[in-house]
Amino acid sequence: MIRSLPPLLLSLWLAVGLFGKEALPATWEQAGDAYQNKQYTVAFDLYQGLLDEGHISPALYYNLGNVCYRQHKLGLAILYYEKALKLAPRDQEIKGNLALAKSQQTDQIDPLPPFFLDRWQHGLQSLFSANTWSLIGLLFLWVGVGGLVLWILGKERGQRKWGFIAGISLLILSLLPFYLSSSRAQFEQYSGTAILLEREYGLRSAPEEGSKILVPLHEGVKLVIIDRIGDWLKVKLEDGEQGWLPEKSLGMI
Fold it and tell me: How many CA atoms lie within 13 A of 115 on its CB side?
């Protein structure tokens, strides 16, 4: 179901301390100065240059989102906030700006409640980065191996018993953080979601321009990608509605 909300004011501040300024002092500071002087096109070009050079961080995406918002490019602003949130899922400033930007969309779509297992998995994998989950898995693994060594070499029966129980339990438990590390890394590489960047575009019933329009959509709508035929993508809205959109109209999160 799509509904409309009145626009809200968005207070935008640049992220300063979340990026490796030591490596990129000049460009980073120049972009910030341009933003403060309301030279938003210059700021965007400088931040985009950093991105093109392979410098990726939540702060860089967050600042790009702020610049795009100031340029009244709501779809791009939401896209960059989503990219920032994907890398820093617990950052409250990113969440706040994303929520307020979404409240200014023409289309307000009520999402279906996620399956509880998917919600738990996403919540767990968002607690730490892929590297941190790997380190936790390695810790469990080595402590588990230590428990088995105690089981084999222990002189007392009680030590050997608890060494065996702890060793087996931790070895099995280590599989969970390794799985969460893998799923977190895959999600950061490809989330399977996108943002509509066109001001207005109709969700199509088939992968062609002349097909029936199912729902008129506006920039900023979030979609899940479920299939592809040539340059067209089959997508699903957050309320479950499915249809086709050209790939060029979307920005991948």
Answer: 4
Number of Cβ atoms within 10 Å of the Cβ of 98? 20
In angstroms, the CA 59 to CA 14 distance is 8
For residue 150, give the nearest of 168, 127, 123, 128 by alpha carbon. Answer: 168
Tokens representing residue 37 in the block:
């002087």
Q: How many CA atoms lie within 13 A of 74 on its CB side?
A: 21
Element (H, E) at 7: none
Cβ atoms 80, 87 nearer than 8 A: no
The alpha carbons of the chain give a radius of gyration, in whole angstroms, of 23
Q: Which residues contact 114 (CB under 8 A, 6 or more apart)?
A: 122
pLDDT tens sequence across 20-33: 444 555 788 899 99
Which residues does residue 233 pair with via DSSP β-bridges, in sequence order?
228, 245
**pLDDT tens for each residue of 202-231:** 999 999 999 999 999 999 999 999 999 999
- Pairing mode of beta strands 193-196, 250-252: antiparallel
Q: What is the pTM of this model?
A: 0.81
Contact between 201 and 217 under an 8 Å Cβ cutoff? The reply is: yes
Alpha helices for the chain (secondary structure H): 25-36, 40-52, 58-70, 74-87, 92-102, 116-125, 130-153, 157-173, 175-189
Distances (CA, A) of 200 to 6, 42, 71, 159: 18, 27, 18, 69
Distance CA 182, CA 49 (A): 30
Within 8 A by CB and 6+ apart from 225, the residues are 192, 193, 194, 233, 234, 235
